[in-house]
Amino acid sequence: MKHEHIQSLLEKLTPMRYIRQSSDERSGKQSASFPKQYNATDDILEEYFLDIDVPNKEEDISAKDPYKKPRPEWKEIVQMIVDGLVNCLVCWKLSRLARNEMEAAEIMMLYRRGKILAIFTAEKVYYKHTAREYDDMQEEFHKAISHSDYLSEDITDGNDTILKDGLSNGKFKWGYYRKDADEGGKYIPCKYNFDIIKEALEMMIAGAKNLEVLEFLQEKECRRVYKKKQENGSHKESLPSLQTVANIRKDPIYYGVLMQSNKAIDLCTLRGYGFEPMITEDEYKLIQGQGNVKGKSVRTNMRYKRKGIKKPFDGLLKCTCGAHCMIDISRGKQGTYYAYARCVKKQKCPAFIQAKAEGTSVKFTRLKVIMDAMQLELQDRTMNHDVNEKLLLEGFQQETKEYLETEAKVMKSDRKNLRRKKSEIEQCLEDHIKSGISFGKMDVREKETYDKLKDQMLVDIQKIDQQIKALEDGSTLYSFDYSRTVKLLEHGFSNFRDAHPTDIDHFSRILWSNLTVFNGEVQNFAWNPVIENLFYPVLTNGGA
Fold first, then answer.
1. Do 99 and 166 share a domain, yes or no?
2. Winning range, highest mean pLDDT, from 47-56, 229-238, 480-489, 530-539
3. Could you count the other beta carbons within 10 Å of the beta carbon of residue 139?
4. 272, 313, 449, 504: which has the fewest Cβ within 10 Å?
5. Where are the alpha helices (DSSP H) in 193-241?
6. Is there a contact between 325 and 318 (Cβ–Cβ < 8 Å)?
7. Residues 525 and 471 in one domain
8. Residues 280 and 169 grouped into a single domain
9. If residue 76 lies in a helix (H) or strand (E), which one and from where to where?
10. What is the pLDDT of residues 124-177, one digit of tens each?
11. Does one domain contain both 48 and 103?
12. H or E element: which one contains 47?
């Protein structure tokens, strides 16, 4: 990167090296770590500023988001440039200098006005101050900036850099283990399922369908274990599906070709890689197009969101196997709809499998059955006894108070987060307007960039205002009507069926912690602890 005609300019330059980390160095997903940027800029300093002690300024990953950090180090550099103390910048790439269009326009303006005489990067030296060079700089900034969130990240050369060495960009492959980035990122045979996947590919070559291969993988208990640990310290696992088998069938990695960014690299020909394929290229071509079977036509259930109906008992019902029940709605005849509760494990539910073997299984419990059982239970235990009815109303009132306090706490927390985000954007907008005033007159392109970012921030502020209003209007504090909910307890629960879905939802959340349902019947009621303490002393004395 030698520019002989720049030698006459070097005597006038007062350089400053600027380093900004682009992503977490431990992730390995970005290539702009501190060591790489220092190594690249060291070559520039050795070539052009060998006899000069160039000062350094660096910022960590927290400077990536313009809303979270005002970049004090960068502001200090800009002030030094305006004061004439610095007139040359040395950086890894041009994208390191700006996170958004506003900052890019700031750099372009300083460069055009001669405050910055030259910018040295690992790819190019900008010093000519021509219209062609201005366009190149503008295009380089444009490629590195995400217009939606005002962030800048240069991620274009990551795949190209690692692809030529046959390294993985993070895509999991069944049968192989991907080493971490600091270990090379290469694919090596997995000691747990390499032989299983290889045998599954041999079945495909022999003509086995995808469903048969899937049954084989399930029989061998083949599974994927994620590297990242969960909050409880265990590793997440996933089981193969029909889509997994289809992906294995069409993935060329199994004969040694890695596909990344629509580019291919033959891992078997790379020196020192030592990749171990499972099949040959001819065998791979043989199994393409096979194994496809006509899938069953599955009707999608109607969703509550589509009809604007709330989900009574959502998150409250439990199956006898211990898993939660989902509440959903399905279409019946002549435009009618039926709500039902079903175990989230569906046909994999252990209790369902056992009942199916006995010939007594049903797939779901109608919500009508749950409501009937709840009405009978409440009728028998409370409404037929004056003492119990009084205690129930007292307990219900106490539970209502606690329920509303919890809802208020959640709503206030969400509203606080939205207001904080709004204030951050407003502060950023204020700084943006001040910077525009300090720059003075702008050309057409700079004015367009300035106005575009300003309008986007105003739109974001308006959106957050709408979110805050929707949060307050839709909160339980505004939709809850205690008198209407209490009416569900009157007259032996006779008006339960005519109640509004919202009232039913509030009532269920207040009164019970969960219900247990299975196989078409309600198996058990789990009363809320406050209600439980009220009733059991009466029951022991023969009251209910």
1. no
2. 47-56
3. 11
4. 272
5. 194-205, 210-219
6. yes
7. yes
8. yes
9. helix 72-82
10. 889 888 888 888 888 888 776 643 333 333 333 444 555 555 565 556 788 888
11. yes
12. helix 34-48
Q: Residue 9 falls within a domain, yes or no?
A: yes
CATH number at residue 90: 3.40.50.1390
Read off the pTM. 0.33
* Residue entry with tokens 């008992």: 313
How many whole angstroms separate alpha carbon 280 and alpha carbon 286?
10
pLDDT of 403 higher than 60: yes
State residue 298's pLDDT score.
40
Interatomic CA distance for residues 396 and 420, integer angstroms = 36
- Token pair of 272 as six digits: 């020192």
Q: Return the half-sphere exposure (C-beta side, CA atoms, 13 A cut-off) of residue 482.
A: 10
Nearest Cα to Cα of residue 375 among 184, 473, 507, 269: 507
Number of domains present in the structure of the chain = 4
Please report the pLDDT score of residue 152 as a whole number. Answer: 31
Q: Which of 214, 199, 201, 196 is nearest to 295 (CA)?
A: 214
Judged by phi (left if over 0) then psi (alpha if -120 to 50, else beta), residue 359 lies in: left
Both 419 and 337 in a single domain? no
Q: What is the CATH number of the domain that holds 227?
A: 3.90.1750.20
Say how far apart CA 215 and CA 533 lie, in whole Å: 50
* Range in 146-150, 292-296, 326-330 with the lowest mean pLDDT: 146-150
Out of 128, 154, 180, pick the residue that ends a domain. 154
Q: Is 109 found in the same domain as 59? A: yes
Residue with tokens 């610095």: 86
The answer to whether 349 and 321 have CB atoms below 8 angstroms apart is yes
Residues 142 and 266 both lie in one domain: no
| Half-sphere exposure (Cβ direction) of 155: Cα atoms closer than 13 Å | 12
> Domain residues for 325?
304-364
State how far the Cα of 187 lies from the Cα of 175, in Å rounded to an integer: 10
Q: How far is residue 202's CA from residue 219's CA, in Å, rounded to a whole number?
A: 16
Mean pLDDT of 45-55: 85
Using CA atoms, how far residue 39 sits from 2, 26, 155, 278, 402, in Å, is 18, 18, 19, 40, 60
Residue 432, token pair as written in the block: 């943006």
**Encoding tokens for residue 406?**
């919890």
- Asked if residue 431 and residue 477 are part of one domain, the reply reads yes
Q: Are strands 365-366 and 337-343 parallel, antiparallel or unpaired?
A: antiparallel
